[in-house]
Design goal:
CATH class of one domain: Alpha Beta
Strand order of the largest sheet: 6-3-7-2-8-1-10-9
Strand content: 15-25%
CATH superfamily of one domain: LigB-like
Shape: globular
Low-confidence stretches: none
Largest sheet: 8 strands, mixed
């Protein structure tokens, strides 16, 4: 049967993608950011999965205020790179895994989570920047990717509890797939940041690191955190962190009450106006 071997968590700052694409990774401002992913790039080479299930949010490139799915799963064979206003990023087309995606949709919907099935969706920096951080600049991504878009842009957005329980349903779905696939689930977005208004540029190091601590050791309690706490402490865009709870909920059941193995942890500020957080947790 298929199994989830690890979960990966990372910010998806658009300026990181631009730094990569424009050859600025060696500049003093960016060196420390990319140094934090050197271990991760080698780790992924050593632990390449058969499929990545990548949880991210669209930034009004595939979805607009005309159509706002709370959870959308990409079931196509491939996904084009979105043009976010300055042309698509020069990265490989994302190849999907329609069979596993359809199986997960079937299982999760039967477990009473309403997913929107998407057969055409251009993917933006929310998905491509995490791939670039973990893979560098390859001619092709190392494996198929299932995009899973979560609305954390337009309220109402899903609760942390809903996201955590959805992760558990995804774990169950993957485990019931009848092919011996190694699957990684990635949660992306965050950490603390606010892009507009009087608090633009907000970064809260203490809150971010407490979030990482609790995500590792006590995710069930973290899942109860109300939206207002994210907005107050981590800024208006800090709500993206609920997506990390989907990936954490998909870890092995034994890790719901004790911490999994932390293969890597990294935190850095600033990258653009954002705090960058990164974790790799392994199912041992």
């Amino acid at each position: 049967m298929a199994r989830i071997t690890a979960s990966v968590y990372t910010s998806h700052v658009p300026a990181i993608g631009a730094a990569l694409d424009l050859g600025k990774t060696g500049e003093p401002y960016w060196q420390k950011v990319f140094a934090g992913y050197e271990f991760s790039r080698q780790w992924l080479k050593d632990n390449t999965p058969d499929v990545i299930f990548l949880v991210y949010n669209d930034h009004a490139n595939a979805f607009s205020l005309e159509l706002i799915p709370t959870f959308a799963i990409g079931c196509a064979a491939e996904f084009a790179i979105a043009d976010e206003g300055w042309g698509p990023r020069p990265v490989p087309v994302v190849k999907g895994h329609p069979e596993l995606a359809a199986h997960i949709a079937q299982s999760v919907i039967q477990d009473d989570f309403d997913l929107t099935i998407v057969n055409h969706i251009p993917v933006d920096h929310g998905l491509t920047v995490p791939l670039s951080l973990m893979c560098g600049q390859p001619a092709a991504w190392p494996c198929p990717v299932i995009p899973f878009a979560v609305n954390v842009v337009q309220y109402p957005v899903p609760s942390g509890r809903r996201c955590y329980n959805l992760g558990r349903a995804i774990r169950k779905a993957v485990a019931s797939y009848d092919q011996p696939l190694k699957v990684q689930i990635w949660g992306t977005g965050g950490m603390s940041h606010q892009l507009q208004g009087p608090r633009a540029g907000l970064i809260n190091r203490e809150w971010d690191n407490a979030f990482l601590d609790q995500l590792i050791a006590d995710p069930a309690t973290l899942a109860q955190k109300p939206h207002i706490d994210y907005v107050r402490e981590a800024g208006s865009e800090g709500i993206e962190l609920v997506m990390w709870l989907i990936a954490r909920g998909a870890m092995s059941e034994e890790f719901e009450k004790r911490a999994p193995r932390v293969a890597h942890r990294f935190y850095h500020v600033p990258a653009s106006n954002t705090a960058v957080g990164h974790l790799i947790l392994e199912n041992t």
